[in-house]
């Protein structure tokens, strides 16, 4: 049965932000080899009085969330190096402190979008930065928020959604990708989209997930292979994939490797970047 998020009042999908927050708070103790440091996350955890040990038993997720976060950090940093005047749109930011870790240059605008109850917590607890703002709403309902985002013609855009896609309905996910690519086309902007993607097996087993099951959330969308997205949204080209499950300790590595063998090379859980 789901336990309520006592420190935040969140339940269900929004409450899953505590899993990734716990991973960041536990990283220096549990996964020191990853050399992950995040003083802003420490400040958020302290302000909430949040005890990350609630999720500490889930060693694979605690490691996986940090490994995944480092992949997203690297891909955003790479984008900002080439596009110091670019726009970052982060869907489902939760209480992440990516912008605080990256410190985007002054020419960049960064927009974090999440549900209203989450954005209230973000505004209260995540240390503010001048060129970073939060918007409340459904990140997949692009027409609801697009006019509040400084996306002018030709401006390069990086769209990220970390730990989000699996909670979307498949039709919602594709409608969102179609809407984002349509916006980029209208503005003649280049766009990179970075997501993490669950496999159908992971989706079917989400009720057994040691951390997600504590929130009552379930996964809804899985893809057999990241390349399937580019087949359905032809303006997107798959440029990079990263098999996270093989970086989360030996048991995960063995399961992910067996899955690859049995499915002729599909990842059980991966990050993927697309560009248009
Ligand atoms: C697992 S948490 C990840 C949070 C953050 N990205 C991180 O890595 O710490 C999932 C987040 O996605 C948000 N989310 C899920 N579906 C969303 C949607 N349609 N629009 C906006 N936010 C959404 C949830 O509220 C939650 O904050």
Automatic annotation (TrEMBL):
Gene3D superfamilies: Vaccinia Virus protein VP39. The lineage of its organism: Bacteria, Pseudomonadati, Pseudomonadota, Alphaproteobacteria, Sphingomonadales. This is Methyltransferase. GO terms for biological process: methylation. One of its GO terms (molecular function) is methyltransferase activity. InterPro entries: Ppm1/Ppm2/Tcmp, SAM-dependent_MTases_sf, TcmP-like. The keyword Cytoplasm does not apply. Keywords: Methyltransferase, Transferase. It comes from Novosphingobium guangzhouense. The keyword Methyltransferase applies.
């Amino acid at each position: 049965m789901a336990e309520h998020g006592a420190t935040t009042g969140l339940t269900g999908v929004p409450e899953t932000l505590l899993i990734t927050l716990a991973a960041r708070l536990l990283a220096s103790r549990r996964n020191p080899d990853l050399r992950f440091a995040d003083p802003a996350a420490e400040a958020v955890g302290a302000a909430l009085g949040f005890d990350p040990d609630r999720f500490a038993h889930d060693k694979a997720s605690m490691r996986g969330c940090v490994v995944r976060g480092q992949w997203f950090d690297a891909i955003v940093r790479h984008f900002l190096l080439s596009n110091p005047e670019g726009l970052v749109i982060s869907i489902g930011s939760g209480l992440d402190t990516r912008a605080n870790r990256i410190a985007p240059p002054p020419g960049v605008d960064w927009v974090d979008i999440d549900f209203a109850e989450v954005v209230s917590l973000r505004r209260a607890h995540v240390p503010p930065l001048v060129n970073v703002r939060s918007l409340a709403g459904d990140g997949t309902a692009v027409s609801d928020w697009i006019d509040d985002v400084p996306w002018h013609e030709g401006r390069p855009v990086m769209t990220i959604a970390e730990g989000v896609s699996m909670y979307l309905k498949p039709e919602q996910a594709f409608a969102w990708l179609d809407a984002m690519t349509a916006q980029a086309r209208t503005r003649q902007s280049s766009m990179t989209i970075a997501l993490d993607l669950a496999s159908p097996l992971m989706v079917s087993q989400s009720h057994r997930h040691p951390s997600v099951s504590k929130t009552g959330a379930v996964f809804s969308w899985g893809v057999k292979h990241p390349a399937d997205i580019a087949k359905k949204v032809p303006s997107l080209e798959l440029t990079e994939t990263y098999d996270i499950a093989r970086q989360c300790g030996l048991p995960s590595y063995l399961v992910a490797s067996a899955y690859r063998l049995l499915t002729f090379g599909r990842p059980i859980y991966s990050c993927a970047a697309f560009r248009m």
